[in-house]
Fold this sequence. Notes:
Blueprint: H1 2-17, H2 28-33, H3 38-67, H4 76-98, H5 100-106, H6 109-112, H7 117-128, H8 133-163, H9 173-187, H10 193-197
Amino acid sequence: MDTFRNLIIILMSSVLVNNYVLSRFLGICPFLGVSKKLDQATGMGVSVIFVMLVATAATWPIQHFVLDELGLGYMQTIVFILVIAALVQFIEIVLKKYISSLHASLGVYLPLITTNCAVLGVTINNITDGYNFIESLVSSLGAGLGFLLAMVLFSGVRSRIENCDAPECFKGLPVTLIAASIVSLAFFGFAGVVDGLFA
């Protein structure tokens, strides 16, 4: 029962409290670039969830059974980037072949998952936090769901921004960044919620 409770805490913390976009400020490029339309934001969020899960499933064993065993822990970042890049290329090929509409709508932002620091951050944080394989997968799932939640919420905010009459100096990127900071501040309200629920 304690194991299940710990997994729920890890999941909820990753989604709400330690949201990689809104709390740790990782993955800002796709967050700002693909959140204009709900379908693109959802597609990117689901793709990132899948990449985070598969990247964690690949990098955790590589770290523990290859890099640590051979004393090559200092190669972690380079190896993880190569693994993530290969996974994203695979996903791009699959999307292009089977879901071409999503592939076309994501456009240049799909290769951005390769350089999405949230994906790399999740894989490295799972190692540094000392999570076992299952905990790492749950943490990655929570981080991906948090990324999707942030994308979908901010997509709604941006659709409202497009229809508002902002001053000329705020139009475009300035009002988008201000809105992103307000959404980020809203997530600070979740701090302590997970500890309070499971205390």
